[in-house]
Sequence to fold (208 residues):
Amino acid sequence: MNSRPGDSRTGARPLGPTTPGVTVRPAGADDIATLARVAAATFGLACPPSMSLDRVEAFIAEVLSPERFAGYLADPARHLLLAEGPGLALGYAMLVVGEPTDDDVRAAIRLRPTVELSKIYVLPQAHGTGAASLLMAAALEWARGVGAVGVWLGVNQQNERAQRFYGKSGFERVGTKRFLVGGVHEDDYVMERSLGPSAPDRGAHGST
Fold:
């Protein structure tokens, strides 16, 4: 997954729709440090206020380190996207192909074959730039391209801002699951949307 069509370093057309000054492209091996930096800067923003800094930092060290991103990029079941502005990274997304491993998710989702939108985050300074909407559009486009008919995600039940964004992006709440952060389980909603031709597109604006 180190070289993909649409990589801006090659001068090729960025993947997906664009907003002036913001592009989205597939991430590659040269982006590992950037992905880890953006992930570390954004994960805590999506966590509930009750979550301790120690737990946030433990999750970042365990799941969002450069070494983990190197592994994600090498995994053929995963696809990573990077949103960029002029000279800087703005956010990223990660998708995972395949049947969910979580029993609660398997019972909740209705559409198969499916892709998980595992992560979609933008930096605070990117709010209002369209980066989140562009990342979402590119993620859904990629999922369609691999033959998925649905996309699902998990979102913390206290993260109302992200839930609004996902709702505007066509996702609906279909169930609940648990999510382990720093040795403690958090309560998530499971949300899903169809990738069919009649799937809603409500002009999403926002970010997680």
